[in-house]
């Protein structure tokens, strides 16, 4: 797990569970619902009485507690005894040591598709059984299935994901500026930003001290503007960072980064602000900015660190479409893989691919599922329900975080690679060519070393 993923895991622990103060459509109260859940014979799960199944993952705290309720349902359906083992941040080291010791977990939850690729290449993973791939074909878009594939073999089931294409805004600042609608295009976002600035509130709070956040800004613009196919090529370094499509995206990003008056604290302030502070600035009294970009996990910061209420004081809209492209939907998430070929591992992977498992998790709060068979009424409030709808609606156009798929030396290390290069671009947004040259040099070096 790179530094970026660790930061998101720490932030995402409660997400909408803490913010889920709205009414629930189905009366979920924090206990796993069994209404409508299939029995073992309908799910074709085997009788596993007396068998132990071990699951490893990075989750701790409330995140782990909620997942244990999913495992409890699996145990009830099969008679198995399932245990969850925390891996710590470095999943590769944990699993590698377990394999060398001859005792790998049955199933592991990995924080990035790059780790899945690494494990599959090493021969550590077991391909999914036909029953599981059938479940995936029914319940998941092709984009999510592709992310769990290595050399034409399906290994992964994405269980928990994020929607990282969102802007959260202070409704009081919005109303004070006389704004009534939210923008759906980049041009409208810039126009609304100017209106907010003219009203006395800087529009954007940017936590650029955390390099991963700056990469997410770029990735959303690039995905919408250049399209998914070009996004995939840049992600794999099949095109260079000096490509004209990157020039265009950085120039577009510079329309905000090149306007210190549109950022809370100006350029220097943005570069000195970390992610949690960027959220606090928007929902402080009085606010220091009106808008903050990032995923649904921002709701946790709002709820825990401010007096604002999600859904009233704090509302959300999707990242706008850029230059006539589709509105981007960028994601990250955790993928389940089997490290053993036993009956217990196969059954659990089958269960995790089903809507029943995801619905139990969704009902706890703090969880988004890519499983399109999950009923939206299972989400605990309207805010997260709409975020989930946006995620599913994207279908095959959804893309996984680009920097999380790159070698860590380029896409996931503080003070170097893409993180630092885009921070430097924020400091000097007029030098698009210089930024591209440095990005390409760092990418080429990292990808060559990674092989």
Automatic annotation (TrEMBL):
Residues 24-45 are annotated as: Disordered. Residues 1-21 form the signal peptide. Keywords: Signal, Transport. The keyword Transport applies. InterPro entries: Bact_solute-bd_prot1, SBP. PANTHER family: ARABINOSE-BINDING PROTEIN-RELATED, OSMOPROTECTIVE COMPOUNDS-BINDING PROTEIN GGTB. It holds the Pfam family SBP_bac_1. This is Maltose-binding protein MalE. Belongs to the bacterial solute-binding protein 1 family. Residues 24-34 have a biased composition (Polar residues). PROSITE patterns: PROKAR_LIPOPROTEIN (PS51257).
